[in-house]
Structures are given as C-alpha cells and as structure tokens.
Specification:
It comes from Streptomyces boetiae. Belongs to the ABC transporter superfamily. InterPro entries: AAA+_ATPase (IPR003593), ABC_transporter-like_ATP-bd (IPR003439), ABC_transporter-like_CS (IPR017871), P-loop_NTPase (IPR027417). This is ATP-binding cassette domain-containing protein. By secondary structure, this protein is an alpha/beta fold. The chain has one domain: Rossmann fold. It is built from 9 helices and 10 strands. The strands form 2 sheets. Strands 6-7-8-3-9-10 form a 6-stranded mixed β-sheet, sandwiched between helices. The chain has a 4-stranded antiparallel β-sheet with strand order 2-1-4-5. Strand 7, helix 6 and strand 8 form a beta-alpha-beta unit. Helix 3 crosses helix 4 and helix 4 crosses helix 5. The protein binds adenosine-5'-triphosphate. Adenosine-5'-triphosphate (ATP) binds next to helix 1. The site of adenosine-5'-triphosphate (ATP) has 11 residues, from helix 1.
Amino acid sequence: MSLELHNCTYAYRPWAPPVIENLDYALPPGLTILLGPNGAGKSTLLRLAASVTRPRAGTVTVGGLRAGSRAYRRAVAWMPQQITAMTALTAREQVAYTGWLKGMNRREAWDAAARALDRVGLAAKAGTKAHRLSGGELRRVGVASALVHEARLLLLDEPTAGMDPRQRRVFRDILRTLTDDIPVLLSTHDVADLAEESDNVTVVEHGRIIYHGTTPGFLAHAPADVAPGRLAEAAYTALSESGGHL
Ligand SMILES: Nc1ncnc2c1ncn2[C@@H]1O[C@H](COP(=O)(O)OP(=O)(O)OP(=O)(O)O)[C@@H](O)[C@H]1O
C-alpha cells in the first residue's frame, strides 16, 4: 500500500513560512529510513503521512485512500516522537487503548496488546503502570502501540532513540519481520545503525528532499577511501554538505 504526498505545503502557523512546500513524495515498498538534521521536517512529513496534521495545500493518500478518512486512519500506524505515559493505565492497557481507538473491539484490542508487547520483548512489564516504565521501555510501548492493529503502513518517528544496544537489536529483528509485508517509513539519527537494514533512504533538509532512492545508491555517495563500517555516515555527510547537488 503506497503512501503518496502530492504538491504538499504545510506551515505550523498561518503567518509562518511553510516548513514543507510543494512536496511530492512516493514511498516505495520495504523499509525506508528518513534522515536529516534537527528541524529538517522529518516529523512534519511523518505527521502529514499519519494524517494527524493536514496540509495547507496538496493531497496525502495511501493506496488511494485520502488522509483524514476513517479508512485511512485504520490503514496507517504512527509512532510519534514523544510517547506519553497514560498515568492511570498499565502498559497493556495503553497499547490496547490504541487498538480500540483504531477500531478494534475491546476483546480484540486486549489480546492484540499482549501479542504486541510480547513482540517488543515487554511481556513481563505488561501489568506495570506506564508512567513507571523507563524511557526506553516507554518507547517500546510506543512501538507495540503502532503494531497493535496490524496496519498496512507503518510510520515510526525515531523509534530507537533511548533504547539500549540490545533493544536496538531486538527492534531491528522486529523490523525485518515487518517489512516483508508492509512498507515502513522510519525517521532516525542512527544513520549507521539502520542504514544497512533499509531498502531505501530519504534525506530531508529544510523541508526539501535532497535524496530519495535505494540504499546502495545512497551509500555510493560516500567518498571512495571511507572504511566500510563508516559508509552510511560518510554518505550522509557528503549529501548534507552538498545540499543534494553531488
Ligand atoms: N509545533 C510546532 N510549532 C511551530 N513550529 C514547529 C512545531 N514543530 C516543529 N516546528 C518547526 O518545524 C520545522 C521542522 O520540524 P520537525 O519537527 O519536522 O523536524 P525534524 O526533522 O523532525 O527534527 P528533529 O530531528 O529535531 O526531530 C522546525 O523548524 C521546527 O522548529
């Protein structure tokens, strides 16, 4: 199910200059990582795709469904950058609540929440109040919430931020099982960590896409003398410094 943004413009305030202007974007199948410096517009792009914000102009569709419709919201899962612990709820209740918001009945949502928490290695904390979880655990609740209703497109905003190295590995394994079935768009600053897992890379700067293509095509931007372990970082640096004009 393909995400498409057509000629999208978005500004946070009516009088403010647009963060994104006349943007065209089509998400390919598989895992696409979204890179860019702080303030580049990655979260804004994901929020538009998640239909939590609406463009001032242009259209956002997934498989022909228009953003804003109920069917669109059911088709798309979004993990925001900030995960808020719902104070009174346990981890499982918080995940189940997301499933219920996405249209599952209470029983389905409750069962699916347990499966989703198990998938992110958090089954043992299912009964813990969400506000008592560590920052990394709370992010895993966020990932579980995004997985709970088996969406047809997954949007993840810096899912690995604050996770320890072991959890990052677990998360990479989960990603591998997901991307065979549904397209995933994931923003990250962990260029080296996730580039080798991805099929495609999108680089955003000042709300503009300066690279959108395959991962091998992205890595080819690294200078020839770079050590293999540093390819992704070097490619990203080269692209950023050139503003995409390589
Ligand atoms: N709620 C908001 N109100 C006003 N401006 C905002 C708001 N959120 C983001 N912006 C501005 O929009 C621009 C893009 O921000 P965005 O959060 O999309 O960047 P990002 O690439 O996700 O950054 P980061 O890597 O720091 O998360 C920035 O200039 C930011 O200051």
